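pinned: reference chain
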Amino acid sequence: MLDCADAPELAAFYARLLDWPDPEGDEGWMTLRNPDGGPKIEFQSVAEFRAPEWPSPKKPQQFHLDLTVTDMEAAHERAVRIGARLLDDTSYHDGSGFRVFADPAGHPFCLCAC
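pinned: its structure tokens
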């Protein structure tokens, strides 16, 4: 479950990013269901939401999603086109590694080359 300022907006972002069905719920709580029956992701609207800090020397490990992709360049372009912001690409070299992004609410997530 991810806290955010606008649950419908963030749920819609992840539905597009993951190419999953439209989320279900209301302004306060949205559910994004994995079409393969795996884990679901839920989103909760929180008043006065504050985005996580990344990177943060005081909080070196924050919760984030690692998403495996087969085509990093295409996945990167798609993520940015739908609202992600690149935070760090220094761990991606020669077709391997990962890139760190922030979703529209500021939560970090990684695209990982397989």
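why pinned: The chain has a mean pLDDT of 93. The helical segments are 7-18, 72-81.
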